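Why do we care about 3D structure at all? Because function follows from shape, and shape follows, mostly, from sequence. That is the central idea of this module. The next example makes it concrete: a single protein chain, its amino acid sequence, and then its structure expressed as tokens.
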Amino acid sequence: MNSLLRVMAVLTLVVLPAAVTAIPTSKPSEKNAPLIMENADHFEGRRSQGEYVLSGRVVFRHGELRVQTERAVWQKDRNIVFCESGMKVSRNGSLLTADRGTYDKNLGQATAQGNVFMRDSSGEVAATGQSIVYLRFKHIATLTGNPEVRRFYTDSAKLAKAADSSKVAKPAGSAKPAKADPFASDKQGPDTLSIKGDIMTYDDSLEVAVADGNVRIHRDKLNITCKKAEYHDPSDSLYLLGEPQVVVDDNQVKGDVMRMGMHGEEIKSLLVKGSAVAHSVEPATDTSVARQSDVRGDSLFMAFKEKAIDSVQVFKNANGAYFDVDKPDFVNKMSGDYMVLRFAKKQVTSANVLGGTAGTAKSTYYHFEKKKLKGKNDAEGDTIDFAFKNGKVDEVMVKGGAKGIYFGEKEGKATSDKVGSGQGGDSAATVPDSVRVKATVAPSAPTAVPTAVPVAKPTTAPAPAPTVPPKANPPVSKPKPNIPWKVK
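And the structure:
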């Protein structure tokens, strides 16, 4: 399970940039400001009444917004400028360039086509595409034509802004903008987030950015795919819709819908609704073998603390499984109606499984010593609590209608399991309240082939209350946590 930390930690860096539009929101007074022609090297004449052809360093100004081009058709009476040879729109450090475009002062609409490039004033966000329509007074921008938005972090942002002149050479000073890689600078700074989709929009009034259709989000080893992604700035939340899947190396999280509660660039929570699956492969180290783990349920909720997983809750049809990759036939399992796992220092420390009113909590654990199978514990009850040590099950506490079977190494041999001991054929021990099972207990007589050993009902009193803190062993009657959709 601790490998899932790496998947979700990287997700802390995933935020759709709010500055999708390159032209900042205008002030209300600018709507009535006049469209002024500030410069043109040549006045070529009049095509029709009220229409003028201008060329050579043409500059128009509307309030704080500037429009530049090498050749323009100006419909003065209609307050429309057609940029026929390069287009550059800037305002307070933000930039939009394209092969051609139109600016309609009355509608407050800027349209650009061909090699569209945008950059915000901070230099942290840039975008490319083939067409953009920006409704200035409605505060809505729509980017199409293989659009891509990139977010530059730390030194990468400085490189992106400093290399602006190399990205689009003379956008308004030559017949055709130079064909340069608009993201050339970020090749020097690997800390870059890329977002692609069929259509990208940003509504500045609602502060919602949307990538729609074949969405791909990439940063370093992180890859996210879905049909639609929405970032809501007021709630600082990122929604992934339509078969969302998050992959980092061999780790992945899937579900019908995902919602990430953010705090800046740090993730605070992740809710996966519908067919929730978290799959992880932990690579081998000098002291441990590779291990695979899977958690499934109708819904899954992860809480984070200091960029690390603090807890994982699974709701309805909760199932967990983990095993050493070199022993795929020996899968440790836990299942119930509700499951919670708690973490510390990137390792699981405890787990609780509740059977619910109509179900039973169950667990299966295989015990190995020096790569040799020593036995298997099966347990079930109303509640099962697990204590972990160094990432492995150390103790199992079964409460309420508890049953346990220990399958040892040799049939007919008494076991030393704390559930009980006995002789003869397979059977299950049943106690009225609770049973504590030491996960590392092994029978006394070793043999190569594991066989079933019966476990009789203990003659002594039930085991004392578990040593796990109360929060790790919630009573059966306690209602299941209700995690709302909107999580701060």
